[in-house]
Every structure is written in C-alpha cells, then in structure tokens.
C-alpha cells in the first residue's frame, strides 16, 4: 500500500531533525502551574528523557528525579536547573516510596521493566497519598493488574493512566482517533486494527528495553480474530511493512503487547494484533532463535533474563552506535466498507521521543484531562477526546514523519 495520501484530521509540518528546534512550551492552568512531578526511574534512559522533556515543556514545574544512582541523578538535575532535585529511592521500599509521594502532585512511573512484576506498589502508594499517576507499562498482565485498582482510585479521586509511553501510549491514541474518525465521518464499522512498530537497535533506551524484549519472548501472543481471542507463538507471523519516509520497509513479528487487548475491548475492533521489528536484521533472527533455544519459563524469569542482558548488552551497545535509534509506528485500520486508514509516527531518536511522549500524558493529567480512576490511553476518561489532538501534537514534536490519514 502506498503511503502517499492526503492526511487529516491532523496535519503537522514534520521537523527536519529531532533536535533542530526547541520544543514548544506549555502554559498549565494556574492551579497546577507550579506542580511537583516525581519521575521514578529518573536515572534511567526513559525516566531521564521524560524528566528532560517535562523540564523543557514546562520550565516552571518542579521535577524530582528519583532513582538508585545518586551520581547519575545529580548530573541530570544539574542539567535541568533550579526547579529540579534528586531523591535516592528504591521503589521496592514501600515506606520510602510513600514518603516520597507525600510532597508531589504527580508521579511518573518509568522504573521498568514491568514484565513479571508481582505488584503495582507505585500505583497503590499513589492512591494512598492521593497523588496523580502515569506509567510507561508495556506489559499486559501489569496493565490489567493496574486496572484492578479502579475502585480504590475512584474512591480516592486519583486520576491514573497506565501504558502511557510511546508504544503503547501514543499508538493507542492514534488508534482511537482513527476509529473515531471512521465512525463519525461515515458511520463505518471498524473491522481490523494492526499495530506495527520498528526501532533501530535498542533505540538508545538502555538495558531496560533489552530486558523487556527478552521477557516478552517468553509470553504467548494474544491477538483477536473476528472477536475471538487467539494465542500465537511470540516473534512469529513475520510481515514486511512499509513505514514510509526515512524508514522504508521493515520486517515485523508478533509480540504480546497490552494495546491489543485494550483496543479490542475499548474501541470495539474485532480483529487486533501488534508486531515489532528491529535492525540490523540479524537481531530479528536472534530474537526468533531465542524462542526456539530457551523454554518460555527461562525467558519469563527476570533474574535469568537479567544475566542474559549483562551478557549481550556490550555487543548491543556497540551495534547501536552503528544502527542508530530511529523509531517508527504505523497503525492501520480497515473498515467494513473497504475504507483503510493509516497513522504514521517516525522519529530519529527513540530515547528523546519516548520522553516527549510520556511527558505529553503527564501534562494532560495536570491539565485536568483525566478523570479519577485507572484508565488506558484510548479511554475517554483517561484522555478526553477533545484533548487527543493536543497530546498528539505535543508527542510528535521532533518527528520527521507524523500524519493521521483521512
């Protein structure tokens, strides 16, 4: 399928480079203008990128960078400026975690990986302290566990969004807008929704993304076909997908990602799947080989996967220097009338784009776009429909190709 269309409802001028232009600043409502935001995992790649993006977008926000590495944390704080501070914190220490939340208005949970986590301690602490919450979870089980806190969040009047990074996160909102446009413009019936993701190497996101990838290889893939839930082998079902300008055609493989279930249930699309691919192509071969060499039980064991990450990380870092860290998302919607619509999002640096995307969700909560409760990004209570265009415009800053198809 050609990627040369007339695009709507959103048309943005793509930027020439991811860092060529300073991000547009955001003026928050007066009551939240001087809010304090705690970024957990702030010394990691995703958390650090989020803290940087928040500081750039809203210089008046108080940013608390939290993590276990004081040296890294204080170095980042020195870059962020006077409104930032560092808190040494282990999220597994419930007492310290709850104390850290007492003095902030919003917590951003970026301390992954989320796979095989046994609890939602950060969300629980946020509810106990009546602190707004957003996480970058990319694990189906964790996201469903987070949703089980719905009644407690409602009672405490705490707004919370789970799976709110770049993918899942921005991709969910893109899907929701494609479905909304199809239903509102032609009263069409959405039939098939497909998420395609590509990242060069690890996208510069560090060992956490490598651990996440390995852990996902131990999970059966859940997809939906004509309303029926099916389970498939991880990293199977390869397709060659055109991601358009600057990315081209890439091989992508089935993975078990939370947006598949949430989009199926919330957006009412009967057939939904998600695929991911990386570069160089030998990494795809390696991922596929791992599903054959290691039993699922091994790949679901965080400690064993941690040792694998330590083994592979130096090699991956070296290759990352050559492959770069481009990231692209393509969301395809097919309707009963034969109408096909596509959304594209491409950025030169995942490590930058993931922070901007996560920050966009954090700002939406501070602006009051999220109702009390625990929500997925595509739920109107999590992100008001009228706030979607603003979020996508913010998240797409620095992209070299972003468009939503009519």
UniProtKB/TrEMBL annotation:
InterPro entries: NAD(P)-bd_dom_sf, Sacchrp_dh_NADP-bd
Saccharopine dehydrogenase NADP binding domain location: 37-153
UniProt-listed SUPFAM superfamilies: NAD(P)-binding Rossmann-fold domains
Pfam family name, one: Sacchrp_dh_NADP
Protein name per the record: Saccharopine dehydrogenase NADP binding domain-containing protein
Source organism per UniProt: Lupinus angustifolius
């Amino acid at each position: 399928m050609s990627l040369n269309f007339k695009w709507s409802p959103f048309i943005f001028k793509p930027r020439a480079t991811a860092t060529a232009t300073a991000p547009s600043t955001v003026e928050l409502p007066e009551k939240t203008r001087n809010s304090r935001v705690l970024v957990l995992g702030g010394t990691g790649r995703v958390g650090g990128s989020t803290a940087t993006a928040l500081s750039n977008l809203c210089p008046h926000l108080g940013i608390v960078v939290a993590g276990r590495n004081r040296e890294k944390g204080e170095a980042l704080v020195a870059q962020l400026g006077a409104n930032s501070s560092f808190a040494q914190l282990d999220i597994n220490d419930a007492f310290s975690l709850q104390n850290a939340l007492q003095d902030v208005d919003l917590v951003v949970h970026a301390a992954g990986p989320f796979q095989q986590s046994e609890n939602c301690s950060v969300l629980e602490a946020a509810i106990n302290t009546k602190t707004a919450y957003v996480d970058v979870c990319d694990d189906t089980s964790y996201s469903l566990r987070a949703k089980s806190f719905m009644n407690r969040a409602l009672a405490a009047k705490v707004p919370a969004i789970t799976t709110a990074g770049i993918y899942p996160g921005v991709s969910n909102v893109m899907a929701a807008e494609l479905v909304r446009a199809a239903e509102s413009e032609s009263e069409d019936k959405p039939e098939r929704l497909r998420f395609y993701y590509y990242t060069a190497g690890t996208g510069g996101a560090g060992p956490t993304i490598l651990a996440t990838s390995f852990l996902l290889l131990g999970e059966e893939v859940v997809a939906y076909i004509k309303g029926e839930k099916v389970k498939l082998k991880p990293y199977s079902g390869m397709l060659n997908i055109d991601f358009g300008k600057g990315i081209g055609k890439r091989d992508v493989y089935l993975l078990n990602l939370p947006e598949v279930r949430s989009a199926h249930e919330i957006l009412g699309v009967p057939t939904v799947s998600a695929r991911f691919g990386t570069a160089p192509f030998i990494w795809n071969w390696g991922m596929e080989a791992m599903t054959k060499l290691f039993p699922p039980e091994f790949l679901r064991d965080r400690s064993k996967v941690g040792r694998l990450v330590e083994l592979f990380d130096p090699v991956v870092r070296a290759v990352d220097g050559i492959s770069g860290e481009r990231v692209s998302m393509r969301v395809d919607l097919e309707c009963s009338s034969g109408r096909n619509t596509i959304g594209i999002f491409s950025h030169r640096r995942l490590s930058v784009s993931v922070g901007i995307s996560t920050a966009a969700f954090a700002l939406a909560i501070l602006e009051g776009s999220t109702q009390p409760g625990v929500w997925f990004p595509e739920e109107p209570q999590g992100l008001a429909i009228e706030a979607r265009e603003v979020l996508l415009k913010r998240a797409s800053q620095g992209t070299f190709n972003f468009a939503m198809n009519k």
